[in-house]
Structures
1.
Amino acid sequence: MPDASTGDGVEKLLQGKVAVVTGAAQGIGLEIARTLHRHGSQVVLADLDCDGARRAAAGIAGAGTDCVGTACDVTAEDQVKQLVATTVRDFGRVDLFVNNAGITRDASLKKMQVADFDAVITVHLRGTWLGVREAAAVMREQRSGSIVNISSLSGKSGNPGQTNYSAAKAGIVGLTKAAAKEVAHHNVRINAVQPGLIRTPMTAAMPPEVFAQREADVPMKRAGEPHEVAGAVVFLGSDLSSYITGTVIEVGGGRYM
Ligand code: NAP
C-alpha cells in the first residue's frame, strides 16, 4: 500500500534534488534525511557528532554514495560555509537546506543561568541564521531552492521552563519571514515547521510524568513521530509547495490550534 510519509510505492517528490539536513545524526533530523532520500533526494547529513552522522548516513536503507555524513557545528560560521561549499563541490547544487539542529537547557527562570540561555539562543538562532544565509547565497544564483527551519510549538505558546528555547523558536519564525521576503524574487522559498511533542531522544530526556501530561494535552491524544515532521519537510521541499513561502506549518496533533 502506498505510504505518503515514506515515499514507498508513491511518486518520488524529490527525485534528483540535493538536500542538506543539520543535526541529522539522530531524532527528527535523521528521520527527515531518511524520508528525503526515500523521495529520491541525495542527502548530506550534518551533525556536531561526525561519527554519528556518518553512521546515520550509512544506516539509511538503500543509501550508497548519495547519502553522506559530515561534521558541522551550526554555531560556527566557517563550518556552515564549508558544509554548503562541499555540498556544491560534491553534488553540484543545494535544492533543500533543513535547519534542524537543536538543544534544550531547560530550567525555571529562577534557576536558569546565562550560559543556558546563550547556548540555546546560539544553536537555534545563530545556527539557523547561518544556514539560511549560506544556503540562500547558493540558491539565489541557482534561481531555485527551498529552506526549511525547524521551530517548535514552544515558540508559539511559550513553555514554562523553556524561556530560552521558546524565545529561540519564536525568533526562528521572525527570521524565516524576514529572509523569505528578501529572497522570494530569486525563486528561493523559506518556511518553518513547528513540531509539537515528538518522540525523540530529546523528549526521552523529559521526566515520564511531564511527557504523559503533555501528551494528554494534545487533542489527538498522542505524541507525534519523527516521520510525521519529515512529511511536512518533504512537502515544503518539493514542487507541491512551489507558491508557498514565509509560512509556518504546525505538526502538533492539534495542540495550540
Ligand atoms: P535530538 O534528538 O536531540 O537531535 C538533535 C541533533 O542536533 C543531535 O544529533 C545533536 O547532536 C545535534 N546538534 C546539537 N547541537 C548542534 C550543533 N551545534 N551543530 C550541529 N548539530 C547539533 O533532537 P530532536 O528532538 O530530534 O529535535 C530536532 C529539532 O526539532 C530541534 O531543532 C528541536 O528543537 C526541534 N523540535 C523537537 C521537538 C520534539 O518534541 N522532539 C518538538 C519541537 C521541535 P548531539 O547529540 O551530538 O548534541
2.
Amino acid sequence: MDSITLIRPDDWHIHLRDNLALETTVPAAARCFDRGIVMPNLTPPVTTVSRASAYRERILAHTPYGSNWQPLMVLYLTDNTSPKEIHAAAESGFIYGCKYYPAGATTNSDSGVTDLTKMDAVFEAMQSVGMVLQMHGEVTSDDVDIFDREAVFIERHLRPLVAKFPDLKIVLEHITTQQGAEFVLNASDNIGATITPQHLLYNRNHMLVGGIRPHLFCLPILKRDVHQQALIKAAVSGNQKIFLGTDSAPHTQDAKESSCGCAGCFSHHAAIEMYAEVFDQAGAMDKLEAFASTNGCDFYGLPRNNSTILLRREPWKIQAAVPYEDTQLIPLGAGTTLNWMLVE
Ligand code: NCD
Ligand code: ZN
C-alpha cells in the first residue's frame, strides 16, 4: 500500500496554550485535523463558561483562512466547580467536556481537584446532561512511584467512580499502561481512551538510555516496553473505545532543556504521519481510519467529518525546530525520518 485516503481525523486532546502561542498551535492543529478537544490548563485555568467562550474567540482568531477546523472547548474542574456551571456548559453549545486533573499531577494542574470523592454533585450533573469527563488518570501521592501512578489511579479512584456513576461518559486520557488499555477495553461502552503518538512510538528506554532526552518527557511518563506493546495492540485493534488524542503540549526549548524540565511533547507538526508509522509497522493501516477519524466522534456523539486527507508513502525528515512564542520548540521526533507524508 503506497497511499491511503482517510476521513479527516480529529484530535481528542490538545494543548493550544494562549496569546502568542496560538500563532503556532492553531495552524498546526488545523493542518490535518478538523476538530480538537482543547485542554483548559491555562493560567488561570478555564474554569467557567465565560472564560471558555473568551478563550474560544482568541483561538478562532488564529484559524487559517479557508480552514474548517473547530476548537471543542473543555471546562477545568476544581474543588469549587458547581453543578450549575455544568448545566451552563451543556447549554453553551461549544463545551464538550470537563477535565479532571488531580491537583499537582502535571503542567498547570495546581487548581485541580484535591478529593475526587467530594465531586459527586458535579459528576451527577455531568451524567444527567451527558457531558464527557476527561480524566488525567494518575494519583499524586508521594508514596506512589511515578511509573505506577496510572495503574494505582485505576484501582484506587477510577473503578469506584465508574461503579458509582455507571452512565457517566469518561475518557481516560493519554493511557500509558497495559492496565489502562485493559481497563478501558473491558469497561462499558461509555468508557473510552485516547493514546498519544509518543506512547505508541517510544518507551522509557528511548528517553533514558544513552542520555536523558527531555523532549520525550511527558506525563503520564513513558513506561516500559510491554506497556508500549499493549498500547499498540489496543490502538490497532480498531476497537471503538480507543481513539486519537495527541496530547500535543508545546513548551519552549529552554523550558524543556533545563535542570527541572517541563512535561509535554509537541506533535502537531507530524501527528497523523507518526500514527501512520505505528499502524503501518503493525500491519494495520486498515484500522487507522477508525482510530483517527471515526471512533472519537462516535464516542462524543458528533457527526463524522465529510472531507478527507491523503497520506502517501514517501520518506521525509522531521524539522529540527518550530518557531514558538518569541523563541522555538523542539518537536517530537525532531530530525528523524517518517515514511508517511500528508499530501492533502
Ligand atoms: C501537558 C501540558 O504540558 O500541558 N503535559 C504533558 O506532559 N502531557 C499536561 C498534561 O496533559 O498532562
Ligand atoms: Zn494533556
